[in-house]
Specification:
By secondary structure, this protein is mainly alpha-helical. It contains 7 helices and no strands. It has a domain at about 35-95. Helix 2 (about 20-30) runs antiparallel to helix 3 (about 40-50).
Length: about 100
């Protein structure tokens, strides 16, 4: 029996145009915290992470770098000296 994730992936491949995936990735690449709360930024970042399937495509370092680049400068500067090396740890520090 096929899992929900498997069925979802098959439906996406069949009915969603490739341009949708490209547009979604572009939106994710442009995502910044801006005036959003840290919690809202983390939620949106994680949503894009799942929707884009980046868990399989990017290294953890690339994903963490993308997360940091969307933060305001004060948070961005805070993560590097602390030696944050995982996305989960960065979520905790910025929340």
């Amino acid at each position: 029996m096929e899992t929900w994730e498997g069925m979802k992936e098959n439906l996406m491949l069949k009915y969603v145009p490739p341009s949708f995936s490209q547009q979604l990735r572009d939106k994710w690449n442009r995502l910044t915290r801006g005036n959003k709360s840290a919690t809202d930024y983390i939620a949106k970042f994680h949503e894009y992470l799942k929707q884009c399937g980046a868990i399989e495509l990017e290294s953890p370092k690339q994903t963490l770098s993308k997360f940091r680049s969307g933060l305001r400068d004060d948070y961005h500067r805070e993560l590097i000296p602390r030696g944050i090396t995982t996305l989960e740890h960065a979520y905790l520090v910025t929340d």
